[in-house]
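Dear H.,

Thanks for agreeing to be a second pair of eyes. The structure we're designing against is below in token form, covering all 244 positions.
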């Protein structure tokens, strides 16, 4: 049996009781970095066999599958957050399901969900782009497609490339963009910066060097009539049980 176990993205208190229970019960833990995972397990007094799982190494994937086929259980974790969400794990989960193994995904810490919830931007639906490609053309193409849906866009960005990315977004899509930058979510230096993109850029520039893990949220200007369309889509059941 394979457990997908989210781990804290900052504050160790964010771990759930179910996650701790799963980590205690499984036969082994598949992780990105055995050192990071050892620190987490030691903090909670848990001792387990650890295997480094590398999504891009066929031998690593095969070894993990062999462990599971042998009737043993395992917890899949990453360095922080939910596995498979711009983190390793998807291939293993897909293979386990294809071969009929039981897979259980636990809810828990996620930088994506935390960022969208805390941003103040519309979150009834949103587009998550993960880490964008490096080339300017591909970045613009991805953002154009996402903005066409008139939804809040969430993505991960390197702290070293954040200023360059925001400048690109401003150049390509204009001052009407709203931009929120959530940095070091759930950590001691957690910081939120947001507003019109020009204001966000100015604040980020004034703060100096950007450090830590970064989530960027962008919202295009509302299209004419978009608000009415969203109201219709989000309408609940009427008094007869149908859609209003």
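And this is the sequence the design step returned. I haven't edited it by hand at all.
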């Amino acid at each position: 049996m394979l457990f997908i176990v989210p781990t804290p993205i900052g504050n160790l208190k964010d771990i759930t009781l179910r996650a701790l229970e799963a980590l205690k019960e499984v036969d082994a833990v598949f992780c990105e970095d055995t050192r990071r995972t050892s620190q987490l397990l030691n903090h909670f007094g848990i001792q387990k066999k650890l295997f480094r799982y590398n999504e891009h190494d066929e031998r690593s994937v095969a070894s993990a599958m062999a462990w599971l086929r042998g009737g043993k259980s395992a917890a899949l974790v990453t360095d922080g957050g939910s596995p498979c969400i711009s983190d390793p794990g998807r291939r293993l989960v897909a293979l386990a399901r294809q071969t009929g193994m039981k897979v259980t995904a636990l809810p828990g810490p996620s930088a994506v969900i935390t960022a969208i919830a805390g941003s103040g931007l519309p979150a009834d639906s949103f587009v998550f782009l993960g880490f964008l490609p490096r080339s300017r053309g591909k970045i613009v193409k991805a953002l154009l497609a996402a903005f066409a849906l008139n939804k809040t866009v969430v993505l991960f960005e390197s702290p070293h490339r954040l200023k360059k990315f925001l400048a690109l977004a401003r150049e390509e899509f204009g001052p009407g963009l709203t931009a929120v930058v959530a940095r070091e979510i759930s950590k001691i230096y957690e910081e939120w910066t947001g507003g019109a993109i020009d204001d966000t850029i100015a604040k980020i520039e004034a703060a100096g060097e950007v450090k830590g893990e970064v989530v960027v949220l962008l919202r295009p200007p509302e299209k004419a009539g978009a608000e009415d369309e969203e109201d219709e889509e989000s309408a609940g059941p009427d008094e007869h049980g149908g859609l209003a």
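Two observations from my side: The chain has a mean pLDDT of 91. The radius of gyration is 21 Å.

Warmly,
E.
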